[in-house]
Automatic annotation (TrEMBL):
Gly residues composition-biased segments: 383-395, 413-423
Protein name in UniProt: VWFA domain-containing protein
InterPro entries in alphabetical order: vWFA_dom_sf
Compositionally biased region (Acidic residues): 283-378, 396-411
Biased composition (Basic and acidic residues): 272-282
Biological classification of the source: Bacteria, Bacillati, Actinomycetota, Actinomycetes, Kitasatosporales
Region (Disordered): 272-423
Length: 715
């Protein structure tokens, strides 16, 4: 039975994705704990239940509370793609950098920000802090830079309206290719003096060691000054999306469009630029024609007459283009290109090692968010959202001086004189961005890391139950139980027989069956035979069985012992499932958490039966949920859920029918000394009562029939 109003295949895919995300989160958590040396950090996705309901984190791709990193997979590219995984890694590393280096809520800097800025300075603080923590992280772990570039590039490419001030995001992120940073610098709409001051602020803040509170005063001064610039001369340049992004910790606020659309976006940009260029050429040609016609008419005009407009043009010409002005600017731009031409190409988008010398990444930086907090809380300032995932890298600065003059690594001119306000070339920027994307696509380290994550996400062992093992004792296998197991095996093998290779007689296509053709009714086209290839995977089976171990199974209340027959029946089923190479899990349940009796890849001992001791009450909901998790996530087409119980359930039984109906596959209720409670009968495909192991044979026979019927529906 399918989940109401949701196709079974869609629900199965969603369950599988949640399991894959769980495996990815586990892998990222392991990585983060190794990098930080801390056991209290972890990663969780929104689809796994990470909370994104708060006002400050509702529309952000990722945030951290100083320990736990939450990633909003609903806002990310498809995590089945290489681009999606690279972006996710970038987000994780960015938030990890906040955990490691951002001052905590109780530090002098954060207290001063709240007291003097009242929350208005948060955007500026985020912009400066992102470049600093990213630089620190990559100075320790250089390989992170390759992954951290993806979200930043995506933010830049997503909307060209952000380009006039994107330089504020990219200047401190020296892991980016220099040609990308240079072109965005050329696009900067503020004048040269404003741009240079912003660069100096970013550069100085980037190398501040905020593990020492003596530096917090200077950090506050820099934040205040950049805030004044951004809300003064640059207030009209910043788009709302850029403001949102800075409020959400950098470029991460702009993520959302698929990384795979980058090339299409760049092609559109180039096309628009080329069309604009052609239009300008057409306009110039039309102007020349008009001028030629005017000249011709002037030549034909009576001598002595003069056009007033021509007179005005001759008078104003020198003022419009003073000597050495417009022409010199163009020359300066060309010279700049010559100065930095050799800097455009560097390995993996990285540069030299100067940044490593400028940025101290020593151990005294680690754990700042916890050590600097007055109350000892590891939380950063109210939690950090977003994560522009760009990490300033120690080996991406080339010849950059981290304290320094941005003009050295971008324009190549002393004093920071640039190409002029908003003088960037769309085609040049598009070309630089395309090159950065190509670097990521072709990088062998990136490919290796993506393969590692994919392997973890596709690992079939992620379906293993995490329930603790139940203590048991071994009992010898009786002859009747062994014989019953052999018969049950033959019943289960009918699934394989159904999908074996062979001739399908009486089909409506294939080779003509003469005998059928001669005896068939007029119009009956089922007179052909065709060879059906084997479809062994269609017979693959996954099973989950739960056995009641509550006190009522012990016979303490005047009944005979039911626990022994239940364990023997389970052994018969488990042994037969092993013989047909099915994956099967067996758990016990009482009024507490379920316990594992047989693991998913574990075989039953052919000579001994695991016997458990009854205890406690009976609440089947937790074990039903565990069975649903495993079966609904399994990619095996045939699924079997079974529960063996005396039916005496207490505790919270509300919602049991809904939970059982949510389990895909055949569901069987096996009563021991009782019958199924009528309230739950509707949730099972097979309902039976057994008293001894051989009774299981008929139960499994009915289950196989049910599974074959389900298989026929899939064909």
């Amino acid at each position: 039975m399918s989940t109401p109003n949701l196709p079974e295949a869609v629900q199965q895919w969603k369950d599988r994705q949640v399991a894959r995300l769980g495996a990815l989160a586990t892998t990222l958590t392991t990585t983060d704990r190794i990098l930080t040396g801390r056991r209290d950090v972890g990663v969780k996705f929104k689809s796994q239940g990470a909370d994104f309901t708060g006002r400050k984190v509702k529309n952000v791709p990722a945030y951290t509370d100083g320990k736990n990193i939450s990633i909003n997979d609903h806002m990310l590219p498809d995590l089945r793609t290489k681009q999606g995984l690279v972006t996710t890694l970038g987000l994780n590393y960015h938030e990890l950098a906040h955990n490691m280096f951002t001052p905590g809520a109780g530090t002098q800097l954060v207290r001063s920000l709240k007291r003097e800025g009242g929350g208005d300075w948060d955007m500026t603080f985020n912009l400066l802090e992102d470049a600093r923590i990213e630089s620190l992280l990559v100075s320790k772990y250089k390989s992170a830079a390759k992954f951290l570039s993806a979200p930043v590039l995506e933010f830049i490419i997503k909307d060209e309206k952000t380009w006039p001030t994107a330089h504020l995001f990219t200047h401190g992120r020296r892991f980016l290719r220099k040609d990308v940073r240079r072109e965005l610098r050329n696009f900067f709409e503020g004048d040269d003096s404003i741009r240079d001051e912003c660069e100096q602020i970013i550069d100085e803040y980037r190398v501040l060691d905020l593990s020492f509170e003596k530096n917090h005063g200077r950090a506050l001064e820099l934040i205040k000054r950049l805030h004044e610039i951004m809300n003064g001369p640059l207030s009209q340049c910043l788009t709302q999306e850029e403001k949102d992004a800075m409020n959400q910790h950098g470029a991460c606020g702009g993520i959302g469009s698929p990384f795979g659309d980058f090339q299409n976006k760049l092609m559109d940009i180039k096309k628009e630029s080329q069309e604009a260029s052609r239009r300008m050429q057409d306009d110039d040609a039309a102007e020349e024609e008009d001028e030629e016609e005017e000249d011709a008419s002037e030549d034909a005009a009576p001598e002595g007459e003069m056009d007033d407009e021509d007179d005005i043009e001759d008078e104003e010409g020198p003022e419009e283009q003073p000597e050495g002005d417009s022409g010199d600017v163009g020359d300066d731009q060309e010279d700049d290109g010559d100065d930095i031409e050799d800097e455009d190409d560097y390995e993996d988008g990285d540069g030299g090692e100067d940044d490593e010398e400028d940025i101290d990444s020593g151990d005294d930086q680690d754990g700042v968010s916890g050590d600097e907090s007055e109350d000892g809380d590891d939380s950063t300032q109210g939690g950090t959202e977003g994560g522009s995932a760009g990490v300033g890298t120690g080996d991406v600065g080339d010849d950059d001086d981290a304290s320094g003059d941005a003009s050295d690594d971008v324009d190549g001119q002393p004093g920071g004189v640039g190409a002029g306000v908003g003088a960037g070339s769309i085609e040049d920027l598009a070309e630089a961005l395309a090159g950065a994307i190509e670097d990521l696509e072709e990088d062998s380290d990136v490919e290796s890391e993506v393969s590692r994550l994919r392997e973890a996400m596709d690992d079939d062992t992620l379906l293993d139950t995490v329930m603790p093992e139940i203590p048991y004792r071994d009992a010898p296998v009786e002859a009747a139980a062994a014989q019953s197991a052999s018969v049950v095996t033959r019943e289960l093998q009918k699934l394989n027989t159904q999908f074996e290779a062979g001739w399908d007689y009486g089909s409506d296509y294939g080779r003509l069956n003469t005998q059928l053709a001669m005896t068939a009714d007029w119009g009956d086209m089922n007179i052909f035979d065709h060879w059906e290839e084997g479809r062994e995977m269609d017979a693959a089976l996954e099973a989950f069985f739960a056995v009641d171990r509550s006190s009522s199974m012990s016979g303490y209340y005047g009944n005979k012992d039911l626990m022994g027959p239940a364990c023997k029946a389970l052994w018969v089923i488990k042994r037969a499932l092993d013989d047909v190479d099915a994956l099967s899990t067996v758990c016990t349940f009482d009024d507490g958490s379920p316990h594992k009796l047989y693991g998913r890849g574990e075989k039953a001992n052919p000579s001994s039966i695991r016997m458990v001791t009854p205890s406690g009450g009976t609440n089947p909901l937790p074990v039903i949920n565990e069975g649903r998790r495993i079966l609904n996530t399994s990619e095996r087409p045939n699924k079997l859920f079974g529960i063996i119980t005396d039916g005496d359930w207490n505790g919270n039984t509300s919602g049991i029918v809904d939970q059982l109906n949510a389990i895909r596959g055949t569901r069987v209720f096996i009563g021991i000394g009782t019958s199924c409670n009528p309230r739950f009968r509707e949730a099972f495909d097979v309902v039976a009562t057994i008293n001894e192991p051989r009774d299981i044979i008929e139960v499994i026979r009915q289950c196989v029939v049910s599974m074959l019927n389900e298989a026929a529906k899939r064909r």
